[in-house]
Amino acid sequence: MGIYSVELYLRVRQACADGMSQREATRVFNVSRDTVRKMMSFSVPPGYRRQAEIRRPKLDPFLPIIDGWLEADRTMPRKQRHTAKRVFDRLRDECGFTGGYTIIEDYIRERERRGQEVFVPLSHPPGHAQADFGEALVRIGGVEQKAHFFVLDLPHSDGCYVRAYPAAVAEAWVDGHIHAFAFFGAVPQSVLYDNDRCLVAKILPDGTRKRASLFSGFLSHYLIRDRYGRPGKGNDKCNVEGLVGYSRRNFMVPMPAFDTWEAFNLWLEEQCLKRQRAVLRGESETIGERLQRDLAGMRALPAAPFDACDQDNGRVSSQSLVRYKTNDYSVPVAHGHQDVWIRGYIHEVVIGCRGEVIARIPDAGIAMNSSSTRFITFR
């Protein structure tokens, strides 16, 4: 039975629907009765349908051997893996295979096709987010330096928030979330992350994450469900990955120049608000209009924001210095040899004794990424 066109299917089906018998249709359209019955059972040609499994009597006994070789190849460099020709040679020389090369080539091609990843278009429900960091050169206070910019993306609406920092430390991750939540006026139900060491201290054998202590406190405060992409698989959070590139190309070309980090971040917030007026390709609504559905699916802000700082304790030395993260900070001599508490923020370190703040060291966020600089700061 040949393969007939969709047009012929349509003509036969219409004729039979108008009262023509299948026997008459066989004569009029010059096709067999089986073909007419098939045309009445399918609205379009169903194609060839194999009813029995492929039998390869010469190759089938050797399939476990081939599969074993190809599975072992997964641990080898790509250039040292079996080709179809090498499999054929080994089967012939070592195993007594008497079949041809083509059947081996066809089997390996089909096996590789079955093992390829399949990607399903993602549907993003409202109220969920993705977060990441990017890097770009900026000029702050006349000094050219690297900015680490935090990006939070709402995939359902493509709403975004961008904020820049001198270092991508844990305090910056948390501070970026807090400002993003204040910007949107709501908290996402969940956030998708990569496995950054600032957030994930360790990936356990069962795949669960051991979170960093500051990050755990942040999640507990806002009751966010944290989700993670597969290690090394950036396509798991492609929305925010794309937004990192968009932010770099559109917000940081040419190189931004601002007097302070705060001025730069206020300008970035303005760009995020301006972007909400855009209508993206394939959409009929603006980002701002779709953002309303995202906000409806998010939770209300807690009564007070989380304190985005690393907390530690220390003791004032005989030289009136407090050691914090490999750096020494000066405090008034009146507090010598006393126990103190330390709060490390992204832009400053605050040191206190009992209920009193005894020292503030501004711009300490840059120092928090350094392990050799000594900071002596007087009250």
What labels describe this entry?
four-stranded antiparallel sheet, Nucleotidyltransferase, domain 5, Transposase, DNA binding, 379 residues, DNA recombination, IstA-like_C, 12 helices, transposition, 4 domains, six-stranded mixed sheet
CATH superfamily of the largest domain: Ribonuclease H-like superfamily/Ribonuclease H
Under CATH at level 1, the class of the largest domain stands as: Alpha Beta
Main sheet overview: 6 strands, mixed
Task: Please give the share of residues in helix.
Answer: 25-40%
Strand content: 15-25%
Poorly predicted runs are 364-379
User: Count of helical segments?
Assistant: 12
Judged by helices, strands and strand pairing, the structural class is alpha+beta
- Total domains, how many? 4
The number of strands is 14
> What is the radius of gyration?
32 Å
What fold name goes in the CATH topology slot of the largest domain?
A: Nucleotidyltransferase, domain 5
Shape: elongated
Average pLDDT metric: 85
Tell me the span between the first and last alpha carbons. Answer: 94 Å
**Do you know the CATH architecture of the largest domain?**
2-Layer Sandwich
Domain Integrase catalytic: 122-313
Domain HTH IS21-type: 7-70
GO biological process, one term: DNA recombination
Organism: Paracoccus aminophilus JCM 7686
Please explain how this structure is put together.
The structure is a single chain. The model is unreliable at 364-379 (pLDDT under 50). It is built from 12 helices and 14 strands. The chain has helices at 6-17, 22-29, 33-41, 63-72, 84-95, 101-115, 170-184, 213-222, 238-251, 261-275, 287-296, 364-367; strands at 128-140, 143-154, 159-165, 190-193, 200-203, 209-211, 225-228, 257-258, 310-315, 321-324, 327-330, 339-344, 348-353, 356-362. Helix 2 (22-29) crosses helix 3 (33-41) and helix 5 packs across helix 6 (101-115). It has 4 domains: 6-41; 60-115, no CATH class; 128-296, Nucleotidyltransferase, domain 5; 310-367, no CATH class. The chain is elongated, with a radius of gyration of 32 Å. It is α+β, with helices and mostly antiparallel strands. The strands form 4 sheets. Strands 1, 2, 3, 4, 7 and 8 form a 6-stranded mixed beta sheet that branches. A 4-stranded antiparallel beta sheet has the order 9-12-13-14, with no helix packed on it. The N and C termini lie far apart (94 Å). This is Transposase. It comes from Paracoccus aminophilus JCM 7686. Keywords: DNA recombination, DNA-binding, Plasmid, Transposition. Residues 7-70 form the HTH IS21-type domain. It holds the Pfam family Mu-transpos_C_2.
